[in-house]
Design brief:
By secondary structure, the protein is α+β, with helices and mostly antiparallel strands. The protein contains four helices and five strands, in the order ββββααβαα. Strands 1-2-5-3-4 form a five-stranded mixed β-sheet. Helix 2 packs parallel to helix 3.
């Protein structure tokens, strides 16, 4: 019986949460049971999500399985990126400096500002009428 090593991690961005699992394999990448290029149709978002794998040169030896929920495509791509970086860090701790230099281990704290009462949005005010 062959034992495969699994590394799991969670990545978050805005309201998106991605659960990432790295397993020994041939480099297959699935997101919510679909291929990556079918799930993230915008090329820039695909490159953004795959960035940690390009920094860690031996990344083709892992199969990446992602379950992502919440938010939109940009937030999901960012969550996938952070999850992959954290899982790669568990797989090989020696690439920490390379990931840190590229800013791949830092969670992006920016999220949507809440709507305030007496206003139509977070900062937008209702139109002022002098008369």
């Amino acid at each position: 019986m062959q034992t495969t090593t699994n590394y799991t991690a969670i990545g978050r961005r805005k309201t998106s949460v991605a659960r990432v699992r790295l397993a020994d394999g041939s480099g297959k990448f699935t997101v919510n049971s679909r291929p990556l290029d079918e799930y993230l149709t915008i090329p820039n978002l695909r490159m953004h999500a795959m960035e940690p794998l390009s920094v860690a040169a031996g990344a083709a030896k892992y199969d990446v399985t992602v379950l992502v929920a919440g938010g939109g495509p940009t937030g999901q791509a960012g969550a996938i990126r952070l999850g992959i970086a954290r899982a790669l860090l568990k797989a090989s701790p020696e690439i920490k400096t390379a990931l840190r230099e590229k800013g791949l281990l830092t969670r992006d704290p920016r999220s949507r500002e809440r709507k305030k009462y007496g206003q139509p949005g977070a900062r937008r005010r209702f139109q002022f009428s002098k008369r």
